[in-house]
Protein: Heat shock protein 9/12
Amino acid sequence: MSDTGRQSFTDKATATLKPDSEKSTTEHFGDKFKGKSDSAASSMQPQSQKSTSQKVGDAFSSNSNETQPSMTQKAKNAMGMGDSH
Structure:
């Protein structure tokens, strides 16, 4: 379960698993906006105040206050399903 004010893990997984080629322009903009909002919320929330599940979720989605690609993005890139962030 994600912390209050953060994007749900289900929404993140759904957006990540759907290939970019199958997304509409609206979906691309929505994903980008939600991702940036969630990343900002992650950066503003101190690690000490995050639940264990949120810390794990942030590690997988690259919202752990670092600029490294997420494990999910690395996997998508390796399979040729993502852009090369």
